[in-house]
Amino acid sequence: MIIIVDFGSQTTHLISRRLREISVDTKIVEPEEFFKETKDIKYEGIIFSGGPTSVYEDGAPTIDAKVFEVEKPILGICYGEQIIAHVLDGNVKPGKKKEYGPATLTILKESPLLSLSPATDHLPTEIAVWMNHGDELARIPTGFETIGITETIPYAVIADERRKIYGVQFHPEVVHTQFGLQILKNFASICGLDPKDQPISEEFVNKQIHDIKDSVGDAHVIGALSGGVDSSIACLMVHKAIGDQFTAIYIDSGLMRSGETEELKKVFKDNYHMNVKIIDAEDIFLKNLRDVTDPETKRKIIGKTFIDVLEEEAKKLDATFLVQGTIYPDVIESAGTKHAKNIKSHHNVGGLPEEMNVMLLEPIRNFYKDEVRAIGKILGLPKEITHRHPFPGPGLAIRTIGEVTKDKLEILRRADRIVQEEIHKSGIGDSLWQVFAIYTGIKTTGVRGDDRAYGDMIAIRAVESLDVMSAGFAKLPWELLEKISVRIVTEVTEVNRVVYDITNKPPGTIEWE
Ligand code: XMP
């Protein structure tokens, strides 16, 4: 086992998930609780996670220097590297440049941390790494040496090989870091563990289903089915576990994409014989969203309206449990752990009102999207479902900048349909995490025929990602973008300009709101 000390990074749980992939157990602890939480367990190494604060800020999380006396290998990631320097006799300062996204790491010296398996081979001298930091090391502690640099950071990887303490400024847990998993495997080997690849298996999924059956007993369960990958797979796991004891509720909020409700009916009711109850709630959602422009307020209102509608259904069906397709990145982005900062309130994490008399059942809460897809595949779901692009709970409302109205939604739906059709035809969809249109709320001047036109601007966002914590904008072929643009301005006459979003995450989130 490796202990992960959580300094509040968005990617703390991702470290744990990566270690799970290589058969290493983890336990995540708060820095203040380290000694209490670890005193009775056997573990082989410690990882300090990243974190959103500066080590020198008042109240920034830190750790007792005694942690360096337990004589276990330590790997500090980002803030974790800075904590090593700060707590020992190094120094941390604000960086000249804040770095978000890709950088090139130059490896200066051989180290077991930076080797390839078998351990005799070494990584290439230059590898692409993913950065997300404002501070950097100004001086390394006694006993350490620098083994990697980037163009802007002189201490991108530091090591005290004798004590087996390492610090990396970049994030090896993020898929955009080349050899990231290899570096974590190397650290596990340094700890004396034997890391082996272990993908999600049928046995694992059957155990999860069995656990659902056990925890539910004879109770009636309802589930919020949105048609997206997460809720579909969560609901299907429960359907497999308890069959007719389960009713899926699909709330048509009026914020869905074109044709979605019909498709969902076909797949789940007709193919899978799942009990699905479809509720038309467009009016109430649009009424509650009237005059609202602030993204967080929108999210909260939508979350609350979903819950109100569901609550009514739960009462009618006398349900004891409510299934939600919450996955791990939703939890972390809603600041579900102590030192994390809230990025966005995901509508399925905000929690249920105290008085709502149901218990939450979240079968995929601990998994990332690619793991959820692997579960779906094992459940025999067709690729059209397991590889559907994710669609956010608050739907088109967070892709409609400014006040959400029926008219704007309709324009967005028509533009988005064209995007989806063209992407489908091109066959490029599978390589993308998501692709969609945004109603930007900006009007610009154009010309149609001989007339001045003042019309809407639609943006297109297409991203590639594996784990959602980081994403790169997709370099779509110009011809494809042109086809989409021409079709939108021709077929959706309210629109006279189409732009393409070329921002990576971080710093840009995938959704615009
Ligand atoms: P961001 O915009 O935070 O999105 O980079 C990350 C992923 O999450 C989806 N998303 C949501 N999913 N409820 C959801 O179920 C939400 O409130 C929500 N907000 C964003 C987004 O589409 C992307 O895949």
Summarize the structure.
The chain has 513 residues and is of the alpha/beta class. 31% of the residues lie in helices and 24% in strands.
The averaged pLDDT comes out at: 89
CATH class of the largest domain: Alpha Beta
Which strand-content bin applies to the residues? 15-25%
Q: What is the overall shape? A: globular
Overview of the structural elements:
The chain has 513 residues and is α/β, with parallel strands linked by helices. The protein has three domains: 2-190, 3-Layer(aba) Sandwich (Rossmann fold), CATH 3.40.50.880; 202-386, HUPs (Rossmann fold); 407-500, 2-Layer Sandwich (GMP Synthetase, Chain A, domain 3), CATH 3.30.300.10. It is built from 14 helices and 20 strands. A nine-stranded mixed beta sheet has the order 2-1-3-4-11-10-9-5-8, sandwiched between helices. Helix 5 (202-216) crosses helix 6 and helix 13 (406-426) runs antiparallel to helix 14. The chain is globular. The structure holds xanthosine-5'-monophosphate (XMP).
Which secondary structure elements does this structure contain, and how are they paired or packed?
Blueprint: E1 2-5, H1 12-21, E2 26-29, H2 34-38, E3 45-48, E4 74-77, H3 79-87, E5 91-107, E6 115-116, E7 121-122, E8 126-139, E9 145-149, E10 157-160, E11 165-168, H4 180-190, H5 202-216, E12 221-224, H6 229-242, E13 246-252, H7 260-271, E14 276-280, H8 282-288, H9 295-317, E15 321-323, H10 328-333, E16 359-361, H11 369-378, H12 383-386, H13 406-426, E17 434-448, E18 451-464, E19 472-473, H14 478-491, E20 495-500
Parallel strand pairs: 1-2, 1-3, 3-4, 4-11, 12-13, 12-15, 13-14, 15-16, 18-20
Antiparallel strand pairs: 5-8, 5-9, 6-7, 9-10, 10-11, 17-18, 18-19
Helix pairs in contact: 5-6, 13-14
